[in-house]
Amino acid sequence: MLHLDLTLLLALVLGSGLGAAFPWDALKKSCSLSKYQFLVPHELKAVQKMKEQFEDIMQLTDRKCNTRLFHRKWRIAELSVPDRMVLVEAELALATAMLGLPAAPRFAKTRQRPLAFLTQAREDLRGCMATEAPSHQPSGKLRHWLQKLQMAKKTETPGCLEASAILHLFQVLNDLRCTALREQCT
């Protein structure tokens, strides 16, 4: 009986010692964007379905939008990995905010799955930014684009921002993929 108690005590002491040597919280908070290197087909189909439904709705309305947020003179491959993270986080923030706007019931249902996917991607990305580049200062190219985004949020209508975000979701997903790859991509 005493031998069993000593074994249990030894296991507890070693377990707590190993816990200090290997901080499990740090392992849980590590950055892993690898699941975004190759996007799951059903997620892509949900985004495609939502985009097509939105385009059908757009044909019924007469929106005149000036925003050209996603028309950049540079490619994401030209940015450093920390810059890519900042860019994609800003793109995802815009997309999730726009998908969270009130919508007709049918369209609201269609965009639930893409919204959940993009929200999770943004949370994962924010976790990586906190661990890998907590005090990163964006490059000049990216800083200019971020200023353009802030200006568009102030000057464009929510409808125009929504259209821009939804119509360019595949570009955002490609930017996410390039960020997850952590190497040059096209």
UniProtKB/TrEMBL annotation:
Q: Which family does it belong to?
A: Belongs to the lambda interferon family.
Q: What span is annotated as the signal peptide, if there is one?
A: 1-21
Report what the protein is called: IFNL3 protein
* Organism for this UniProt entry: Circaetus pectoralis
Extract the GO molecular function terms from the UniProt entry: cytokine activity
- Name of the gene encoding the protein in the UniProt record: Ifnl3
**Main localization (coarse):** secreted
Q: Which GO terms describe its cellular component?
A: extracellular space
The record ties this protein, via Pfam families, to: IL28A (PF15177)
Output the GO biological process annotations, alphabetical, semicolon-separated.
cell surface receptor signaling pathway via JAK-STAT; defense response to virus; innate immune response; positive regulation of immune response
